[in-house]
Design brief:
Strand content: 15-25%
Strand order of the largest sheet: 1-3-2-6-5-4
Oligomer: single chain
Number of domains: 2
Bound molecules: adenosine-5'-diphosphate
Structural class: alpha+beta
């Protein structure tokens, strides 16, 4: 429960960290996009104003004669120009179109004399827009209705290059501001929506990232509990033996020997268990790339190895009243790159199991064959067999089909996991076919030397 909380907390932290970072990135990107759009529009407006004002300035200057005087030539160029104080309502639409640029978009033009007094205007008529006579080129102004304008001012000269006054061309920023407000809204609504999506996907991704860690954590926990359980049995036996011996007032030599022998048997079991656990850890580390192989793989003759296993375990088979035979079905020696000692352990673990789980007068057959670049070793027995639902589990650490029976056979449930790990470390595999009450066949496949990556195979220790 506590571990679950720890993992949930870690998942939450991961997800919120990721969502936070994504939120900052999205926020900054949104701001950047907004600024870029605003800047691009601003530049376009300024360029347009500059062009319109420049064109008007260049067309007006050649007709100006007296500073501040509205020449008839100006009226000719801009029919809708309206001198201050005159009634301009008679400017018709047909006349208006001749002012071209001034009527395209929302432009106005103002002519000021040298003292900054308004002389004439054309185009838009903003409500009480302040008259700014200074020579500052670019200005932002606001009229009585609160509408903002962008304005550019140029000095006008007469034909004989005296200062006539100023020309001011401006443009309403209403459409520009409307557009920016729309962009702002899209960002304001879009960003939280995007953040919701990011938060959801962060939670999912964090779960995905944490899943293998959680699984391996659970496996480690299970492994530790199983190992402790296995170690406890011989330790308890040693302790009970020692305590009962200590309680005896006197002890014969035979009793002392019996006690020591029991203690030795249990400590031997402890030692084997510790060695098995150590070996599994080492193979695991090598398979996960944590530990480098210490020795380069030897060239192992599998024909010899199979014969040796059969010969050396014949005494065990004899003692169990089981017939152990071997068949080498290949004419040529099969060579595998790897660790001879561990490959021996791999085959012998399976043969020992076969003898162990075959009743008296049963048979165990060890067969060596070759199949498309693989050395194939079959360990067949006529034993008790394994139920289909157990066949996938027998390679799990500490798993025993029936703990009661394994107690009598003395197994710890590590024989098959070790064999499987050794096969994997040699880029090979183990599979099982079995029928309850009829027997089992374990098949080991090992890649032959010189095929693929087998030359680079690691040795186990
Ligand atoms: P153990 O040390 O208990 O034998 P193993 O990992 O070697 O552990 O085997 C796991 C289980 O697989 C055993 O408990 C046994 O029930 C089953 N098993 C292994 N080999 C055979 C076999 N040849 N026939 C029947 N059952 C087997």
């Amino acid at each position: 429960m506590n571990q679950n909380r720890l993992f949930r907390l870690t998942r939450w932290r991961l997800a919120s960290g990721y969502a936070g970072v994504m939120g900052v990135i999205l926020g900054l990107s949104g701001l950047g996009v907004y600024e870029a759009i605003a800047h691009a529009h601003w530049m376009t407006i300024d360029r347009e104003l500059d062009t319109v004002a420049g064109t008007l300035h260049d067309s007006l200057e050649p007709v100006l004669k007296q500073p501040g005087r509205l020449e008839p030539g100006i009226k000719h160029l801009l029919p809708d120009v309206c001198a201050v104080g005159s009634n301009c309502s008679n400017v018709t639409n047909s006349q208006r179109h001749t002012v071209g640029a001034i009527h395209q978009g929302q432009y106005y033009m103002r002519l000021l004399d040298r003292s900054g007094q308004l002389v004439a205007l054309a185009g838009l008529q903003p409500e009480q827009l302040p008259i700014t006579s200074n020579q500052q080129e670019w200005q932002n102004l606001t009229d009585a209705a609160g509408i903002r304008y962008r304005q550019i001012t140029f000095i006008l000269h007469t034909q004989d290059y005296r200062v006539w006054g100023y020309i001011q061309v401006g443009r309403s920023l209403q459409d520009f501001e409307k557009y920016l407000a729309a962009v702002k809204w899209i960002l304001f609504v879009g960003l939280p929506l995007a953040m919701l999506l990011v938060a959801g996907s962060s939670w999912w991704l964090a779960g995905l990232a944490i899943q293998p860690i959680y699984r391996s954590y659970q496996q480690i926990q299970q492994f530790t509990a199983d190992a402790a359980h296995e170690l406890r049995t011989p330790l308890a036996a040693i302790r009970a033996t020692v305590e009962s011996t200590l309680m005896l007032p006197t002890m014969s030599e035979q009793e002392a020997r019996d006690t020591l022998q029991t203690t030795r048997r249990q400590s031997q079991r402890l030692q084997e268990l510790a060695e098995d656990l150590l070996m599994l850890c080492r193979i695991d580390q090598q398979l996960r790339g944590i530990r480098q192989p210490l020795i380069r793989g030897d060239c192992v003759n599998i024909n010899d190895l199979v014969s040796d296993v059969a010969e050396e375990l014949s005494a065990l088979a004899f003692a169990a009243d089981v017939l152990l035979t071997s068949q080498i079905r290949v004419s040529e020696p099969l060579e595998v790159t790897g660790d001879a000692e561990q490959l021996y352990r791999l085959v012998s673990n399976l043969v020992v199991n076969a003898i162990r789980y075959t009743p008296c007068e049963g048979e165990v057959t060890l067969i060596l064959d070759c199949c498309s670049h693989y050395a194939v070793i079959y360990v067949q027995d006529t034993g008790i067999g394994i139920a289909p639902e157990e066949q996938t589990r027998i390679f799990d650490r500490f798993y025993r089909v029936s703990s009661d029976r394994s107690l009598t056979t003395g197994g710890s449930g590590l024989g098959l996991p070790i064999a499987n790990a050794i096969a994997q470390a040699h880029h090979g595999s183990i599979s099982v076919q079995s029928e309850l009450g009829k027997g089992s066949t374990f098949t080991i496949k090992l890649p032959l030397r010189g095929i693929g990556t087998t030359d680079n195979l690691l040795s186990i220790l």
